[in-house]
Amino acid sequence: MTSEIFEKWLRKLNNSMRFDDRKIAMILDNFSGHPNLNLSHIKLFFLPPNTTSMTQPIDSGIIKNLKHHYSRFLVRKRLLAVDSDTGFKLDLLQALDWLKKSWDNVTPTTIKHCYQHVGFKDLPATEETSAPDTSIWSSAEEAGLVSDGLSFEDFVALDNGVAIGLGASGRKIDDILNSPHSPSDDDVDIENDGNKYPLIIHVP
């Protein structure tokens, strides 16, 4: 994300709000790619520095709840593969389908509770939300698929520290887009820990 990309998106959203005769407030963190713009139908509010982990509802529980639901699909698939001749196979299309279904299982009550948790107290009170059913984890333990001492919560959080972006600057992105060489699928590599791995996605 660059400030240019974000500003373009923000102005497009502002035009949409103006067309619908609506005004909205948008809460942003202090990421350098978030410019402070004076818009007609969007009021920008910036969080205090170094408060992301305490004030952003998505970080405080919504993503965790989504990952709970997704992990249940993953464990169930692994259990079914135990008695399968083909073994465990997962393609991109199925992963996206699981993600869609997992998001559908994140309830409005859960989202509202996460907002209340970080201080949005004017919202109507909601009951405490329970974590998704983890009984399938017991089945995985009985099948010998789980390392000793690994809880379902630990399994869900395994990728919390994994980098999910390259952090390319705007100039690097421009260099890539304007490069005269357009790599084929066979040329694309992912660099990780100093090694290169071919990017192969099997779609049925």
UniProtKB/TrEMBL annotation:
Pfam families in the record:
DDE_1
Q: Where is the DDE-1 domain?
A: 1-115
InterPro entries according to UniProt? CenT-Element_Derived, DDE_SF_endonuclease_dom
Looking at the UniProt record for this protein, which Gene Ontology cellular component terms does it annotate, in alphabetical order? nucleus
GO MF annotation terms: DNA binding
Domain of life, per lineage = Eukaryota
PANTHER family reported for this sequence: PROTEIN PDC2, TRANSPOSON
Under which name does UniProt file this protein? DDE-1 domain-containing protein
